[in-house]
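Hello,

I think I submitted the NDP job twice by accident. Can you confirm which output corresponds to this input? Input:
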Amino acid sequence: MAQATFTAEDQKIESFRLLSGHTIPAIGLGTWRAGSQADNSVKIAIVEGGYRHIDTAWEYGVQESVGHGVKAAIHAGVERRDLFITSKLWCTELSPERVRPALLNTLQQLQLEYLDLYLIHWPFRLADGASRPPKPGDVQEMDMEGVWREMEGLVKDKLVRDIGVCNFTLKKMNKLLGFAETMPSVCQMEMHPGWRNDKMLEACKQNGIHVTAYSPLGSQEGGRDLIHDETVDRIAKKLSKTPGQVLVKWAIQRGTSVIPKSNNPDRIKENIKVFGWELPQEDFQALCNIPDQKRVLHGEQLFVNKNAGPLRSVADVWDHED
Ligand code: NDP
Ligand code: 1BO
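Support: Only one job matched these inputs. Its output is below.
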């Protein structure tokens, strides 16, 4: 259940409580493909939009720019302790001895002393310089337990406040829960009305693991254009909201935090104006009934080698659970 907090500008933003007792703001700014504009987008989001949550990753190649944006926001008077900064451990670093150096590198790029949340980006280890799609040998054996112990060590040493995962399946989550001494606080997954992924959401809820919904608008180039979906458009018109706001609100009403990406100042500010009103149950349900459920981020280019494996199909990537 979301709880309300207030930013310095008295804008009400909701947050969710994590297993650790910390809270995660219900809405954050995504930074994948934000490019060199990331610093400006982050600053505008925090200072003008009232965002307190920023989602980034080493793989996005924007951490230095994001760090500049965060620094500018702090310079403008926002306190670091009021921000929630998430980053992710990339696949090439998924061996125990690489975890801490990767985190330290991320902190240096962001110019921060700690992260609020550090996530395993994808549960597959890639060789340095892996091709897309991978050539034979690029997808390697992974010591998940050893990697998780190192993630737990980062919490103990106060370098990160919470740890979690992305792009997991029920099978991988159950395996992780079998050896985790520190529970994953967050599971970040693709979720929007075109890919609800109810099974994973329910499993996480049952284990007290909070879900963050990524690609909530259907993602970017090559994604699914939910902004112009007829159901989304009809509900937006009826409620005098924008399609972006309807999609973000749907995610929050499902109990997930949500991280829409935008580099456009007006859309950044529009996407967070989702508090103080609700989607009526019939509209929420209509969004849950959008047909043609399919993933946008299926991982084929990153991980599938049809001939050499070890992942020979998208179904293999998702443990044949879809
Ligand atoms: P989103 O679903 O957030 O969609 C972003 C696209 O929508 C951009 O093209 C943006 O363009 C446009 N947009 C933003 N707001 C509006 C609006 N109000 N109206 C119309 N168009 C709009 O895509 P992402 O895939 O980027 O997902 C969001 C974030 O989730 C990522 O940036 C990343 O931080 C995270 N993520 C995590 C993954 C993981 O593996 N853990 C995988 C994928 C994403 P413009 O910038 O021009 O506004
Ligand atoms: C390749 C990274 C996908 C976005 O998180």
